[in-house]
Amino acid sequence: QLSRLRDRFSLRTHIIRWIIFILIGIITAVIACTIDIVIEELSELKYNFLKSSVDDNVTVNKSGGDLALPYLWWLLLSAVPVAIGAGMVTYIEPITAGSGIPQVKSYLNGVKIPRIVRVKTLAVKSIGVITSVVGGLAGGKEGPMIHAGAVVAAGISQGKSTTFVKDFHIFKAFRDDHEKRDFVLGGAAAGVSAAFGAPIGGMLFSLEEAASFWNQNLIWRTLIASIISSFTLNIVLSAYHGVSGLTFTGLFNLGKFDHPLTFEYFELPLFMLLGVMGGLMGAAWNFLNTQINKFRSRFVPWRAGKVCEAVLVAILGVTLACAMIYYINDCRPLGNDPTIHPVQLFCEDNEYNAVAALWFQTPEATVRALFHDPPGSHKILTLAVFTIVYYLLSCSTFGLNVSLGVFIPTALVGAAWGRLVAMLLFYMFPEAQFLHPGKYALIGAAANLGGVLRMTISLSVILMETTGVETSFFFPLIIALISAKWVGDYFNDGIYDTVIEVNHVPMLPWEPLPQYKGLTAQAILSKPVVCIKLRDRAHYIYEVLHKCNHNGFPVVDDVEGDRRSEGRVCGIILRSQLIVILLKSLYVENQRFWQQETTIQTFRDVYPRYPSIQSVKPLDRKFNYTVDLSMFMNPSPVRVNTYDSVPRIFNIFRALGLRHLLVINNENRIEGIITRRDFIYK
Amino acid sequence: QLSRLRDRFSLRTHIIRWIIFILIGIITAVIACTIDIVIEELSELKYNFLKSSVDDNVTVNKSGGDLALPYLWWLLLSAVPVAIGAGMVTYIEPITAGSGIPQVKSYLNGVKIPRIVRVKTLAVKSIGVITSVVGGLAGGKEGPMIHAGAVVAAGISQGKSTTFVKDFHIFKAFRDDHEKRDFVLGGAAAGVSAAFGAPIGGMLFSLEEAASFWNQNLIWRTLIASIISSFTLNIVLSAYHGVSGLTFTGLFNLGKFDHPLTFEYFELPLFMLLGVMGGLMGAAWNFLNTQINKFRSRFVPWRAGKVCEAVLVAILGVTLACAMIYYINDCRPLGNDPTIHPVQLFCEDNEYNAVAALWFQTPEATVRALFHDPPGSHKILTLAVFTIVYYLLSCSTFGLNVSLGVFIPTALVGAAWGRLVAMLLFYMFPEAQFLHPGKYALIGAAANLGGVLRMTISLSVILMETTGVETSFFFPLIIALISAKWVGDYFNDGIYDTVIEVNHVPMLPWEPLPQYKGLTAQAILSKPVVCIKLRDRAHYIYEVLHKCNHNGFPVVDDVEGDRRSEGRVCGIILRSQLIVILLKSLYVENQRFWQQETTIQTFRDVYPRYPSIQSVKPLDRKFNYTVDLSMFMNPSPVRVNTYDSVPRIFNIFRALGLRHLLVINNENRIEGIITRRDFIYK
Questions:
Q1: What does the alpha-carbon distance between residue B494 and residue B290 come to, in Å, rounded to a whole number?
Q2: Which of B212, B241, B270 is the last residue of a domain?
Q3: The domain containing residue B619 runs over which residues?
Q4: ipTM above 0.85, yes or no
Q5: Which of B246, B470, B636 sits opposite A644 (nearest CB)?
Q6: Residue A504 belongs to some domain of the structure
């Protein structure tokens, strides 16, 4: 009967878990939609205003043209939103800077990153990404949307919010790090799915890039979250765009290719070359970006400076764009104009300026344009200059104190040079019918993304899902991506891993590093270890907690006097538990007062933010009382022998998701302790 | 400099590993092509002959029709190939019976299954599947192709074949169980990819269904193998079918849907209902099949009986098909005939018999027909009877001693009832335009597959890739599949897991079972443990190896007399190593003869098939000599404490891919040993 009770409990937990994943999908999608729609509306307003401003000023004074006023308007409309966004990020929640993917990845690896999954973070990130994209910085909304999904997941699954100091007293069964991590993974998948309308891509993304731990059930759960998310997005956006009828159309964020893309076998080497080029350009981008960010962290340490810097980059972007529009004369006949804001500028009547068309919209719309504009929509010079300008702009943007992702600008640069390659080849071989510029733009985008991000499968699936190309086109995409990744990996790491490394986050790799080979625990353990006796004085514990900030303390027995570090190991106790013991005065001497009501829940209630030792008053008279840890400690800590090999210890550490691991000798006496950092920095 | 040398060695290993994966892809595809083409050619011959036989006999005697001769021919052309196939499987290599997926799955979980990845197995399996499909049994070639991929992978990666007693002395770096398993996983993915022309599906299949261990690099490698495989297949099949030009077309084994499939939101509940139906039918199928197989193993234990049984099922199939053709009068006008062998039979001129069209081709072609035939190609009665007949036939076929997979018949049954549902609904609501019968056949196939196999993601991707539907149709597919899986899981396990369970294969699940909760090592360990002293007599070792068939023996020290099981653990030694020691007489007394040339290679040479203890001559005079195990043993076996919790021990066991694990007490003395079986059967 007990087992049936347990079964029912476990079934209930199962169903609740599924409900949470579905909720994660829905809410993530709603947030993503909101960001999406606000960005679209505001950008529409901005570029409409700029277009009419340009039209007004140039038409008056036809021959010379006075772009000064539109330029100033443009500056204003870029600098102000960027200043707001950068200010919020810098002054309210600095953790929201950047795309958020490296942080989510580190979190999923088991690294504690403070404030990464709070509601406040989500709010700042959302507003930050809206203002930055509307401001016209070379960045995308995708990274922040993924981060948003992670926050939503963490918030819902825990049933409480520390930002609002509100505990709904639901979902208590899921309040531990492992469960929370699984939900966050689902949230990240839902975020990808909402950002691109790519459910399979979202699932694969979380598998390829985000996750550090895997099991079969997780595949399922993340898939559900990402499918629900893309479906919700679809319904909301259909309603918003006023699509009539109930037919499900699918989302093609980067525009659907109308004709199925085909390719000839002899194009494969060409795709491979594009991949190599993407790898080289991506590796250079990563290197350059890292250098710029090093420079930044050295010379712009003050907050105000960081905001100014973001505004400066925005101004630089506008200025370069204006200069391009002014100096490059690329007029195309109206009529088959694929742009929504055709600007006449200095062109003849019935013509529009193709350069302005590239700049007078969000980067995402420009990617769409490069994929789908008919052949002959741009001059070669236009695309060449655009590639260089955008390459440098995106490189200086990533790392600013704004909430922006790197996906869209990278895809944009790639699409530009991919299209450029097709145009150059077509110029040389005018009879080559296969040189469809949109196809090459897609391959170029894939190659450039591969070179910068070093993901392959999820990227190709995402690109396939967002452009609706056939599965038979998977092969060229993956060839370009793999070539890009291999070439890029020869030079440096992907941009996310670079960010993680620069920030000295102790990420555990997937497999033991080759340099572990032949080492034993002896070589990497940390010592001396601070131990606590099975029955120790409160005073000593208080001092130890003050003196060192270790997270776990071995509990020892069989100790002569105060030579604790020579005792036999009998368990381990966490810092947080010791603090709770001191705070609640759980001493042997007053056992009769607390023994009844103290359960495991006493310790769980404070998860995930434990009080610090400073909150314990030091002048308590009970400090000479005794603490009996046998009631509280974990009696079977993971122990390894001094002579065990490091690769195996690593595997145990990683598989069990440990934070610390005791090293003992053959007599079960403590020799040292191993934490995450010992694997990476020794 | 040493580290650079190691780097170069590791780079070389890396490159070789990639080359092996590419080779696996190519060779698997070539084998799959061969099977494919032979089946196609032979079936073409068979059904062409039958068609003309029917035409001849019926035309002569128009009114009554004499189907006796064609029926006899059909019987002969079915029974003979099936008898050959069943005979080969039964008498030459019984392990090739069935689809092979459960066996590959168990192998990848770390269970040793003898002869599963040998060249001989591959040969028998290939011929077996060709004869069985040509014989017309209700089975598919897909499962065996996946098994073939696994064999190819194991063979190539080890650079030697035991069947041909040939060692190429290459790829020696990969001769261990872990590496071999990774290659086999890649081979399985390549097999799926070749069977369906679905590279992403192949990768996901190996992830969702086959794999038991995962890390990020594996995703990559399996993807490469499956892409190369589908590409090779594409080239070979294009050449074979004489497709002109070099344009890559992609493979659509189940026929490409010409018009993009769309759906309305209100169809989603309908898809869910189809899923529920698929779950119910699948669960019933699994139950029925298990019962039939239990009956079989009880009442047909002799080899000849097994062959007869297969022939009987073939005859039953032909008889039922003939009866259907004879009694159901379903004539359709020629012209838009989607079948390649239109049989007139008793129909008017310019008409063909739709029932015969269902039967006069391979099951795969029938699936294609059900997906793509225009509306109104069948009577409702035809499909209803066909569903029932094929359901029962496929149920009695899986488990016969023939090499056949379960994918195609399951899809076929599902496609039949899916189409039937659409036709019934259309009959009731003739104005419902959305009731495209092909679409519902696809959803029905998905639902039925989900109900029987209980996979979801890989199945939906495979179906998408083989029919070329849009990614926006992913959602209905996954809804049907998930409903089917949930409903099915309520009743029983998927068919592969059922087969594994019936055969008592000790598969380690992904996560600790709920019933482990609260248990400690004490509860599941096996004892007493047979130990060996650090310096023990050869005679004792010889006796121990004879008496018990354990695979690993703890090496103990600090022993009083012969009370070995009370000694302190200092290492572990494998049975195979002990046998090699005895065979090569590696004793302390004659150390000077062997110490020079004995290295780790001495022990690795015999991998993977170690000699048995029977090959050691018992009357050797050296049997009183001493063996010093400190030179040979593994000095740091994985040890856990008696009081450690079982879920954690399970996690360590699984993560490290262990075969045995020592349980010690606080004084490092042996308490017991835990193996794979202890987790599952205690």
A1: 11
A2: B241
A3: 514-680
A4: no
A5: B636
A6: no
